[in-house]
Design the sequence.
């Protein structure tokens, strides 16, 4: 059975990892290795550790705050996740929801849940149905928000 690393943070205000795991359980049979780290910049090393220990792919969940330093930390974490992918030759699906993406806590919760589930579907497609991703190339897909569609000539 395929093993998937699920790494989230205590800093986040919504449990996106549980939403993604529920979505994946509805799509396929996989085993999860879940770890929780304090903050967003801790995600890359924990993902890499789990990938090195035999997980086939990972999902990294973070919810950066609205301040400039939060956005900088998210960018640094994202770069670390890219490095971890390159060092392991395995996918890490980054699922970040910024606190200032929504105007209310209710909207933020809906966005976090939907983005986590849609990225879980992306991971499923990466691992089990890559041809479905190819069919969606250039179609303006968005996770957590309405799709924007392709550019028409």
Sequence:
């Amino acid at each position: 059975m395929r093993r998937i690393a699920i790494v989230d943070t205590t800093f986040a205000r919504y449990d996106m990892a549980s939403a993604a795991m529920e979505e994946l359980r509805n799509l396929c049979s996989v085993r999860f290795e879940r770890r929780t780290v304090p903050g967003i910049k801790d995600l890359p090393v924990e993902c890499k550790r789990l990938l090195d220990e035999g997980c086939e792919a990972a999902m990294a969940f973070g919810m950066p705050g609205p301040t400039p330093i939060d956005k900088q930390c998210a960018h640094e974490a994202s770069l670390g996740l890219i490095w971890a992918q390159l060092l392991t030759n395995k996918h890490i699906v980054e699922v970040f929801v910024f606190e200032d993406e929504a105007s209310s806590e209710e909207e933020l919760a809906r966005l976090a849940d939907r983005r986590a589930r849609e990225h879980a579907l992306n991971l499923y497609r990466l691992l089990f149905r890559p041809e479905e991703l190819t069919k969606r190339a250039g179609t303006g897909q968005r996770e957590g928000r309405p799709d924007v569609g392709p550019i028409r000539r």
Observations:
- The longest helix spans residues 105-128.
- The helical segments are 16-27, 43-52, 68-88, 105-128, 130-135.
